[in-house]
Amino acid sequence: MEKMIRILLLFILTSCVCGTFVVKVAQTSYQTEENNNITLEWTFTTKTDSSSSSLNIFCQLLTDLNVLVLYHVHKGVEASESQNGQFKGRVQVDKDALREGRIRLHVSRLRTDDSGLCVCKVLTDDGWISDRCRLNVTAAVDQPEPQKPAERSQAEILEKVWIYVGLTAGFLSVCAGLFFVFRPYFTKCTDKIKKQP
Questions:
Q1: Of 54, 69, 93, 180, which sees the most CB atoms within 10 A?
Q2: How far is CA 143 from CA 37, 46, 49, 140, 186, in A?
Q3: Sign of the C-alpha dihedral, residues 69, 73, 74, 78?
Q4: C-alpha radius of gyration, the chain, whole number
Q5: Is residue 17 a contact partner of residue 129, using CB atoms and an 8 Å limit?
Q6: Spatial distance between the Cα atoms of 174 and 194, rounded to a whole number of angstroms
């Protein structure tokens, strides 16, 4: 806690930005739905001769109610103990990008209470500077479930089977009846054909 207070005081009291030291956010606003993942990105100028132990990064989420620590590097070492519990296991940093002067925070499983102003402050031997972006996480819209064909009950299926059985029996009965009605006609025709020389 004392370390964090010292760093905050250092940020507040240091007002000198020397040379061309710059921190720039990649986007000023991010919009997404809850349960999605997002990458927040800032770039800062680095000098090849500066050591990583002079690098201090302090990224916070400012909401209406709280100031929450997203990510913290103190003298080149990640200070995960200062990260707010709301983000434990949900914020990852791209360490390769960090060496190149890019802060890339991958925030996963976003929640609506992750909405707010994200401020990232960078302090080096050259001074300190910050930039910010707005993160707006909205509630996920319930997707309508695809229409499933209505499942038929066993009684409905049996009813249909009996209808088909009844129709088939009726059709066969009509055929048999017609056969018996026209049988004499067929037998007369076949007798005439046999009697012809």
A1: 69
A2: 18, 45, 53, 9, 68
A3: positive
A4: 39
A5: yes
A6: 29
Rounded to whole angstroms, how far apart are CA atoms 98 and 42? 10
182: β partners: none
Q: Indicate the SS3 state at residue 163.
A: helix
pLDDT in tens, the chain (197 residues): 555 555 444 444 443 333 466 777 888 899 999 999 999 999 888 766 666 778 899 999 999 888 999 999 998 889 989 999 999 999 999 988 888 888 999 999 999 999 999 999 998 887 888 899 999 999 987 766 666 666 767 777 778 777 877 778 777 887 777 777 777 766 665 556 666 65
Q: DSSP assignment of 56-107, as one string?
A: EEEEEEE-SS-EEEEEEEETTEE-GGGS-GGGTTTEEE-HHHHHTTEEEEEE
| Contacts of 3 by beta carbon, 8 Å cutoff, 6+ apart | 74, 79, 82
Going by their DSSP bridges, the two strands 29-33 and 127-138 should be labelled as parallel
pTM of the prediction? 0.59
Residue whose tokens read 């080096």? 124
Measured between alpha carbons, how far is 73 from 128 in angstroms, rounded to an integer? Answer: 14
What is the distance between the alpha carbons of residues 64 and 54, in angstroms, rounded to a whole number? 32
Give the strands of the sheet with 102-107, arranged side by side: 23-25, 38-44, 102-107, 91-93
Tokens of 114: 């992750």
